[in-house]
Design goal:
This protein has 346 residues and is mostly beta strands. It has one domain: YVTN repeat-like/Quinoprotein amine dehydrogenase (Methylamine Dehydrogenase, Chain H). 0% of the residues lie in helices and 55% in strands. It contains no helices and 30 strands. The strands form 8 sheets. A 4-stranded antiparallel beta sheet has the order 3-2-1-30, with no helix packed on it. It has a 4-stranded antiparallel beta sheet with strand order 4-5-8-9, with no helix packed on it. Strand 14 and strand 15 form a beta hairpin. The two termini are 29 Å apart. InterPro entries: Host-pathogen_enzymatic-act, N2O_reductase_N, WD40/YVTN_repeat-like_dom_sf. This is Surface layer protein.
Length: 346
């Protein structure tokens, strides 16, 4: 008999951002019970869990709204105690602004934060010391709007996607320098394979002119060139690679709506590929506007945060079935965004 996907998860917690909350909500992974909510500075976007210091990092990109549809860029990064769920510190990154993508290197004690550019300099990546919670430096990415950021398993190379710029920025994290630009249409989310040999990039970006096949560009990390495109019917924003080698992609289904920045939504789709063979393994319906995808440490469960419906779909990847849908509190538009899985403390 197959073991229940909930088995052995007692004490594990799922953290979910609500942009208009503005909050981070916490749920018991084994039972889906709501454990509490932490108010954070408006308007939170992404989450990243540091298991060494038991800190949950939350980026605040804008005072309100989205990229190119906001009331001003924020400069704040919030550190939350993962167990007490209390804010430890709000770090002001000024003059850096528009912090968004978060990537952790626990071995070196570094948190990488993508930030948007300004009139006097391009966008870049700010390096945070996770012990002192202070900036160590900055790496330029050569584009105005680096949005998502990921590092390889060695912690020596990073990749930033750029919405309008037609390339993925490749940075050397030891040298602190931009080393290459891989030609890709303006792009959204990205993920690196477990062995570091491939980078999966969602492109074109949401709102891009027609003319590019929607899907996932596969970059060879050795040659730094695109070797394949995994086509999808609709534009993909979030991508994620599970520890078991599944590539998860969230497809948006929408039509323009003058009354909403987010458009008129239809249920999105989670599409699952093999990260090694690139075979399509399955697909199922999720909420409106999937914006973030994450998985449990064993790769059995997937979590899909959908910003327009403000829901999180919890999916069993072995059976490709939806176990439940969490309703994330919001105070307006938008709703659910960043996700983090917090294993229980040893």
């Amino acid at each position: 008999m197959q073991q229940s996907p909930r088995a052995g998860r007692e004490g594990d917690v799922l953290a979910v951002v609500s942009q208009s909350g503005p909050t981070v909500s916490f749920y018991d992974v084994a039972s889906d019970r709501h454990l509490g909510t932490t108010e954070v500075p408006a308007e939170p976007h992404e989450l990243c869990f540091d298991p060494t210091h038991r800190l949950l990092w939350c980026s605040t990109s804008y005072r309100s709204g989205y990229y190119h549809a906001n009331s001003g860029r924020s400069t704040r990064l919030t550190a939350i105690d993962a167990d007490s769920r209390r804010i430890v510190e709000v770090i002001d990154l000024a003059p850096e602004h528009g912090p968004h993508g978060l990537a952790l290197d626990p071995a070196r004690g570094r948190l990488y934060v993508s930030v948007e550019g300004s009139a006097d300099r391009p966008g870049g990546v700010v390096i945070i010391d996770t012990a002192t919670r202070r900036p160590l430096g900055r790496i330029d990415t050569g584009a105005p709007g680096p949005h998502w950021f990921a590092i390889d398993p060695t912690g020596r190379r990073g990749y930033a996607t750029n919405k309008e710029a037609p390339f993925v920025s490749v940075v050397d994290l030891d040298q602190g320098a931009l080393t290459a630009k891989v030609e890709v249409p303006g792009s959204e989310g990205l993920a690196v394979s477990a062995d570091g040999t491939q980078v999966f990039v969602a492109a074109p970006y949401l709102g891009a002119p027609e003319g590019h096949t929607p899907g996932i560009r596969v970059i060879d990390a050795h040659t730094l060139s695109v070797t394949a495109t995994l086509p999808t019917e609709h534009v993909v924003v979030p991508v994620h690679v599970t520890p078991t080698g599944r590539l998860l992609a969230g497809q948006l289904r929408m039509t323009p709506d003058p009354a909403s920045h987010l458009g008129r939504q239809a249920p999105g789709r989670l599409t699952v590929f093999s990260a090694t063979t690139q075979e399509r393994l399955g697909e199922l319906e999720v909420g409106l506007f999937p914006l973030t995808v994450h998985s449990s440490p064993d790769g059995r469960l997937a979590y899909v945060a959908c910003v327009s419906s403000s829901t999180v779909d919890v999916i069993d990847l072995e059976t490709m079935s939806t176990l439940t849908r969490l309703d994330i509190p919001k105070r307006g538009e938008p709703g659910a965004h960043g996700l983090a899985y917090l294993p229980r403390a040893a």
